[in-house]
Structures are given as structure tokens and as C-alpha cells.
């Protein structure tokens, strides 16, 4: 397969975020993921492959209505990194916190390596602790006694 140019690498990652993450078009995973795909950012309880990613996507979508916004992107060769902001509405159980309906957000990075026109590796640094703190603040709105 012919190597992708920078614009194709960049667009592949953008389209993946839009179609799979933002629109939950899980049937398109095979369009984006290489058969040797490895996800280095999944929780250890999940396999680091396409199946693990699908389970993570489904779990995230059960806990949150979510929209990933791309704030910046740098692409070089067959690699691209995205600075992302995730806008989320809490609709289901997450980290032991029942649905609050709260609107929360977090930021982070997604790094993709491309091979044969598809995503072969993914790393992410998304701050879930920020979400947890925001949700706990929404739940604990009662009277606070200073220490």
C-alpha cells in the first residue's frame, strides 16, 4: 500500500474521532483500525485491541453523552497527536457515581500511529480524575462546613 501523505494521516484521525467517537458508528471500526491494532491506553481489564476499544467506547457512551472537540493537531510522517476537549453529560453510572445529568469536561491528548492506511497504535492521556471531581462536586452541593 502506498504511504499516506500528511493530510491523509491528519484526516484519518479526525474522521475516526468524528464518526466513531462522536457519532458512535462502531460498525466503521474496521474502516479505521489496522488488523494488528494495539491500544496502549485502555484499562488493564480490557484487551488492548479492537474488541477492548469497542467495549470502552460502549461503556463510555453508557455513562456519558460525549462530544470530542479537536483543539490542536500536529502530524509528522505516519503519526499524529490531537489535543482534545471532551464535553460530556453524565447519563449513567461511572466510577460508582450514579447519573447526575451534570455537564462536565476534561482535556487531554490522543496519539495515533498509522500503517497501511489505518490506525495501528493509540495512546491517550485524558484526565478522568477531573471528571470525577466535577461530578462529586455536583453530587455534594449541600452545606459545606469549613475544616
Layout of SSEs?
Elements: H1 6-22, H2 29-32, E1 33-39, H3 50-63, E2 64-76, E3 79-90, E4 103-115, E5 118-126, H4 128-139
Give the overall pLDDT as a whole number: 92
Give the DSSP E fraction (strand runs of 2 or more residues): 35-45%
Structural class: alpha+beta
- Main β sheet profile: 5 strands, mixed
**How far apart are the termini?**
64 Å
Keywords:
147 residues; alpha+beta; five-stranded mixed sheet; 4 helices; 32% helix
Description:
This protein is α+β, with helices and mostly antiparallel strands. Helices cover 32% and strands 37% of the residues. The protein is built from four helices and five strands; from the N terminus they run ααβαββββα. A five-stranded mixed beta sheet has the order 1-5-4-3-2.
Summarize the structure.
By secondary structure, the chain is of the alpha+beta class.
